[in-house]
Queue: 2 jobs
Job 1
Amino acid sequence: MNLEKLVRENILKLKPYSSARSKYQSGILLDANENSIGSVLLDYEELQLNRYPDPFQLSIRKSLGNYLSVDIKKIFFGVGSDEIIDLLIRIFCNPGIDNVIIPQPTYGMYEVQSDINNISVRKVLLTNDFQIDTESIFAQIDDSTKMIFLCSPNNPTGNILDREDIVKLAGNFEGIIVIDEAYIDFAADKSSIDIVENFPNLILLRTFSKAWGLAGIRAGYCIANEFIIDILFKVKAPYSINKLTMDAINTAIQKAQVKDDFVNSIIAEREKLVMRLNQFEYVQVFNSDANFILFKCSNADEVFTKLTARNIIIRNRSTQPMLAECLRVSVGTEKENELFIEALEEIL
Ligand SMILES: Cc1ncc(COP(=O)(O)O)c(C=O)c1O
């Protein structure tokens, strides 16, 4: 596969900005108009917040590379995975010309970022069991189709996508396939991380916002072919990942066991919630490989409004294709889940 041919011509030719810290990170630094005396945040003296952060993200790429046994040349960090979605669209899709394919229903940002970049979106429904309809996708592909977004486990349906379908698409599509694994830690089935190596057009997207419990630091990453990673570095803002975030990521990776414990607790709570929801006569619960549950009831709007009135905030997904009368609830703490179920008992 010729990845170069897929990249927008102006991006391929782009001469990236050469930032001060991309050249020198130590010495008598009088090159970036920083405050040489120090920062007002004395508590963070060690981090030298008066200096711009490492544009190459080396320390966090090394930590993550070690943790996942992935070559750091294949890792790129973004300000949340949302930033990476935007960067990828800008790298591969010519505004007003190219199109992307987005199976529905799924995470809304793929479409929003495509719209922002003036890229037309071809929507293809998932199958009845929320799997990829590969035939319908192949039927939608034309010469201007640059990317396909797959979300596994899918938000908001909660299920993991079949591996054979992902492989079939990756092997037969002459464009980029993004697999968003934001919720993969909660899934029993295998990640697609081991097949990135086999398919140069496959980009795996992950985040620190879910299992790691770090939505507040804004950190996502992707694992992809080196050529794609190099272009992401060319296009990103020079100092996108800040030092506080890098420090938090490095510390978090050292404490990965805590993340694993969170995951086990959340899965145990999820199973309890599924069981409780299944006890309601008019509720249909969908299988979840994630930290949320999709369920269908007879009057979703009313249930949603009544829960909100009780200060229990879940997500109404009932206007999305295939999701009439469907609501999505995140797995909360044991206490929160109990309050949610009690409220539901009263309402239903
Ligand atoms: C499927 C999916 N991808 C990506 C994101 C965004 O992640 P981040 O916080 O890393 O931007 C979300 C957030 O809800 C999501 O559901």
Job 2
Amino acid sequence: MKIKLITIVFLIATGILSAQSDKSANTYQKIVKQTDEIYDNLVKIRRDLHMNPELSKQEKRTSKIVADYLKDLGLEVKTNIGGHGVVGILKGGKKGRKIAWRADMDAIKTDDPDPVTFKSKNRGIRHICGHDVHTTIGLGIATILSQQKEDLEGTVYFIFQPSEETFTGAKDMIKDGLFDIIKPDEIYGLHIGPGTSGMINFKANELFAYQRSLKVKFKPSVNDNELENFMNTVLKGYARNPLKGSPWDIINNISDPKIGITSKETIYKDYFLLDGTKLYKDQDTTFFSASFFETNIENTHSIPLEIKKQILNSKFKDAFISIGYSRAYATPINDPELTNIAEQTIRNFYNEEMFKPLYGQAPYFGEDFIFYQQKVPGVFFFLGGSNTEEGISSMPHSPNFAVDEKTIKYGVQCFASLIFERTNNK
Ligand SMILES: [Zn+2]
């Protein structure tokens, strides 16, 4: 059962919600203390994962560490789901709502030097997307909630997913029967973001822009220059660019207090951003490819149809062969009602300064968390990991990616509390 807005008004009027808030704050304080006690061990786990990163589909060591840890906590553990996927089931002392928490485990190929002292031992592979931290936070939440087991009214499922970077892990786990093994009512997860360590950001509906790639085929008889000019003009006709400059210039403004994504006046609300075009050919075909970011799903459906129409109305109509369309990055779509409840719940106990809603959709990000959300309503959060004073920047996939380790503590404290509230407050 979900809390409706009218119920919240009623609860405030009757004073029940403030009593509830006090209770939430007390639970949070208890969880803060318990997290402090396990923090050093969590840092040890994270450093070990960081030193031993594994690529997508190869997370054998990581998944064994996760499975052993969850078994030691006393959880029911299932392994090898959709590859190296692991599920831990924590049953509370009383019956209640069933909540899933998802963490991903895979690392990435990179030859850039590792800025930390506990460097990756696997040459050319490193956690530059923070999944070592996500895994550690997942284990931390499992530890803390195990400590509340008697008071926990419901069940918590911990999903440790392989192969997020290849966008296959969530799908593979689902295909392998994940939702036959567990039946969550709600699902949550997080990604490290570039904000200050501990900063939590999220919004209802789409978190990211939709990325699409177009490939148009022509007979090789066309004049390449003329075709390229024509196609570029057609595509530029769709541009709703929030700023002049290259797409990279635009992403650089994402944290700007005035136009960045946490400002109500953000430039990231409504845009079509061309991310490059290319003309190339083989013996029989001339190809024109383009990729773009678009915030509006309806436009992503209509754009290829409109482009085809424009080609068929141009002098290139006889040379036109076909237009193909592929989806690349997927965006999480946060359930509006659960987003609202999560925001109210987190505001009850978390530092007000460290919570900022998002007002726009980020380009260049993708997440396969959406495949769970297509089955179970849920919310995906950003958790900031940067510390400018210490020169730590946690923009995912950037060559100098690092995470302030205190982020682990904030993540466990906040989201163990949120999950506890979601299972216990009906
Ligand atoms: Zn990632």
